[in-house]
Amino acid sequence: MALAGVRVIELAGLAPAPFCGMILADFGARVIRVDRTKGAMTVDTQARGKRSVALNLKNPKGVAVFKRLCVQSDVVLEPYRKGVMEKMGLGPEDLLKENPRLIYARLTGYGQSGSYAKAAGHDINYLAMSGLLSMLGRSSEKPYAPLNLVADFAGGGLMCAFGIVLALLERSRSGQGQIIDTSMVEGAAYVGSFMWKSRSLGLWNRPRGENMLDSGAPFYDTYCTSDGKYMAVGAIEPQFYQQLIKGLALDDADLPAQMSVSDWPQLRQTFTRVFATKTQAEWSRIFDGTDACVTPVLSLDEVLSHPHNQARGSFFKDSQGEISPRPAPVLSRSPAEPCHSRDPFIGEHTRSVLKEYGFEQAQIEQLLSAGIIECNEAKARL
Amino acid sequence: MALAGVRVIELAGLAPAPFCGMILADFGARVIRVDRTKVAMTVDTQARGKQSVALNLKNPKGVAVLKRLCVQSDVVLEPYRKGVMEKMGLGPEDLLKENPRLIYARLTGYGQSGSYAKGAGHDINYLAMSGLLSMLGRSSEKPYAPLNLVADFAGGGLMCAFGIVLALLERSRSGQGQIIDASMVEGAAYVGSFMWKSRSLGLWNRPRGENLLDSGAPFYDTYRTSDGKYMAVGAIEPQFYQQLIQGLGLYDADLPAQMSVSDWPELRQTFTRVFASKTQEQWSRVFDGTDACVTPVLSLDEVLSHPHNQARGSFFKDSQGEISPRPAPVLSRSPAEPCHSRDPFIGEHTRSVLKEYGFKQAQIEQLLSAGIAECNEAKARL
């Protein structure tokens, strides 16, 4: 796999860093998640393929163990607020001094500098600071944050993984590591670069929710079907729009012009009325195989069995029967291999990992009895 | 820079592939965009740092020129529907045969297989097929697509760039290229992996728009201020929620419990009323420097000058005075260097690129006079 042989130490955190770690694990990296001792249940639901080591980082001996793991690895991924790692003597300068090849990735909401660097926040805050939240949400409503997709995951976990692989590539030439400062405000904004850049095209001239791509245009929106489900319509280009009209059994002559913005409310009403006359399955049958750009809005469960997705293998079921998206993108020769087994327990691999990193058996037992580390191999899952 | 020396041929397309090309250019790759001849204006607004070559791909001689460019490059990035490149004799097997080190990246909505592979579509369709659209939008509204952020850019351009860099890293070990099949349906779903995986935590038990992170919770939403602007509130953890209440001048004793879902409508009304009593600036002053997780919702222009963003340098102005997000993430030793000059004209670099790729002067002039290639060096911008 593409990241075979890459050793990653992931400091346990909320959703963004675990997602980054999962991506790396999916593509072949050895990801070791460092959890705290005395914590029974993990909140990391994106833990497939990882191993877990439990360390007491309040104790200098635990910090020393952690330092050794980092220095002997390729990547450190930490999600803490500015200064936390430095206080433990585990800042980038500390670790890079001992391992100049280390890629030290820091994934935070606000970044390592600036007045908000030490403040708490969540996706909605980072999205607000990025400028993008001001463009999101229907015109009749206040701004709407699309779950925590854009800052936590796209601009956070994925962006950080991208930076890590970039740094690994650069290291293959230079032999040196470096520090990656991933700010989710900046990651989200960068993902949305097109918004700033397409203003000159007039794409966002109207208020929020009244433009072509933000639910303003009736031919780029969702519609409720007779069975309470939805269809998604994306018929922008004239030739695609024609196929939409045809599939809806409407007559161009009866309708206002596609791009007549002042007539969009009326056009929307017409589409709403027509879509409500058939079920989602009936509309799918009408539009499948055409270029009308009309597709069913599938639920998290329906995605698995939709014929197109099924033929692609876009989703898989793991050994616990849970559905997950297949890792993207698909590489032909060194594809990702997402782990299908259950997620690790906290501290499940402490013994084996420490052994692998060169700790002596006696040393390991001593650390365990002193509570510096914990190992939960045999813990039954309730 | 991290991608110094990497030569990319980007076949001109809509927003996703140009974004992918821009990311690669930002991080140091030589990105050559191949445009069609007889086209006056480009629609690529994400063209900074790229060069443009104009070729007539309806003519076999033009295709031959493109083939030579591809074979002498590291990455080919093509956004066409399944079969289009193959028809021109430029499919992955054709090109990889002549250059086994080539990374052949294919960025499409539905991927290279499955029943929709030849169908037209846009972000809203890919998002619908990914399962994520079914979770987006307030409870009182039909599903809402957040611009074209999630499928076109996060699951499309960025995901493809990630795959390309993965493949480049793998090639540095194996010496071989490969094919990247980037489907935006799959890319979007993968970005949203957490949604499937956190269902077991009960995070999405309620209908759309009534959960913790999808505008159900009053302490995770936006609020209008007295001057018609907005604040973003993300105060999930109890200790942060306390600071929110405090900053709003409210008393815990007067309010229902934070997690009492049936009381959320009442709590929302209270927050709405209070936020409407001050301006955005006043609220920013109240909450800045606290852990209340309350931030202003900034516009695309306000982001540049907000003190935190300004200290970070999160946004920059190019030579045309346009604001853009700085590339993310920030690499300490080999950072991105986004081009500040104007975007290329179509065909601006045809001569210089062909010369660089080994075409003889006489050959180039012949191609130009025959209309196989076009060069628009001196075209004044209107």
Automatic annotation (TrEMBL), chain A:
Its EC number is 5.1.99.4. It is an enzyme of class 5 (isomerase). One of its GO terms (biological process) is bile acid metabolic process. The keyword Isomerase applies. GO terms for cellular component: mitochondrion. GO terms for molecular function: alpha-methylacyl-CoA racemase activity. Residues 314-343 are annotated as: Disordered. Keywords: Isomerase. Pfam families: CoA_transf_3 (PF02515). Pathway: Lipid metabolism; bile acid biosynthesis. It catalyses: a (2S)-2-methylacyl-CoA = a (2R)-2-methylacyl-CoA; (2R,6)-dimethylheptanoyl-CoA = (2S,6)-dimethylheptanoyl-CoA; (25R)-3alpha,7alpha,12alpha-trihydroxy-5beta-cholestan-26-oyl-CoA = (25S)-3alpha,7alpha,12alpha-trihydroxy-5beta-cholestan-26-oyl-CoA. Belongs to the CoA-transferase III family. Catalyzes the interconversion of (R)- and (S)-stereoisomers of alpha-methyl-branched-chain fatty acyl-CoA esters. Acts only on coenzyme A thioesters, not on free fatty acids, and accepts as substrates a wide range of alpha-methylacyl-CoAs, including pristanoyl-CoA, trihydroxycoprostanoyl-CoA (an intermediate in bile acid synthesis), and arylpropionic acids like the anti-inflammatory drug ibuprofen (2-(4-isobutylphenyl)propionic acid) but neither 3-methyl-branched nor linear-chain acyl-CoAs. This is Alpha-methylacyl-CoA racemase. It comes from Cyprinus carpio.
From TrEMBL, chain B:
Its EC number is 5.1.99.4. It comes from the Eukaryota. Pathway: Lipid metabolism; bile acid biosynthesis. SUPFAM superfamilies: CoA-transferase family III (CaiB/BaiF). GO terms for cellular component: mitochondrion. Keywords: Isomerase. Residues 314-343 are annotated as: Disordered. Gene3D superfamilies: Crotonobetainyl-coa:carnitine coa-transferase, domain 1 (3.40.50.10540), formyl-coa transferase, domain 3 (3.30.1540.10). GO terms for molecular function: alpha-methylacyl-CoA racemase activity. Pfam families: CoA_transf_3. The keyword Hydrolase does not apply. Signal peptide: none annotated. It catalyses: a (2S)-2-methylacyl-CoA = a (2R)-2-methylacyl-CoA; (2R,6)-dimethylheptanoyl-CoA = (2S,6)-dimethylheptanoyl-CoA; (25R)-3alpha,7alpha,12alpha-trihydroxy-5beta-cholestan-26-oyl-CoA = (25S)-3alpha,7alpha,12alpha-trihydroxy-5beta-cholestan-26-oyl-CoA. InterPro entries: CoA-transferase_III, CoA-Trfase_fam_III, CoA-Trfase_III_dom3_sf, CoA-Trfase_III_dom_1_sf. GO terms for biological process: bile acid metabolic process. The keyword Isomerase applies. Catalyzes the interconversion of (R)- and (S)-stereoisomers of alpha-methyl-branched-chain fatty acyl-CoA esters. Acts only on coenzyme A thioesters, not on free fatty acids, and accepts as substrates a wide range of alpha-methylacyl-CoAs, including pristanoyl-CoA, trihydroxycoprostanoyl-CoA (an intermediate in bile acid synthesis), and arylpropionic acids like the anti-inflammatory drug ibuprofen (2-(4-isobutylphenyl)propionic acid) but neither 3-methyl-branched nor linear-chain acyl-CoAs. Belongs to the CoA-transferase III family. This is Alpha-methylacyl-CoA racemase. It comes from Cyprinus carpio. The lineage of its organism: Eukaryota, Metazoa, Chordata, Craniata, Vertebrata.
